[in-house]
Amino acid sequence: MMTRGSDYASMIRGSAFMNKKVRNMENENVGKIEDLMIDAADGRIVYAVLSFGGFLGMGQKLFALPWASLSFDATKDEFILNVDKDRLKDAPGFDKTDWPNMSEPRWHNEIKSHYGHPGLH
Length: 121
Description:
alpha+beta, SH3 type barrels, 7-stranded mixed beta sheet, 2 helices, 13% helix, 33% strand, globular
């Protein structure tokens, strides 16, 4: 994720991630970070909730993507998402006014299965 020059060099406020641009590996704009989902038991960020799609915010869906699939480009002050376009097109999303219960094992397993990401437990 972020490089660490010392034990605390990569410390950053959670609010600093909000509204950060997210680009894919082809340098195309994917969307922006709306929220972070943190495992309260171990303090680890599990998902970044991204928005993309819609017109002027209407019809816009949210998508929970594994945090480990993002890397931060400090020179551009944006995130790079290592998920291919086809996987994103078919990603399970949700309405910004009707969030799923992300603590539910069935939901978590659906996301894990979709992204096939080993970083999810």
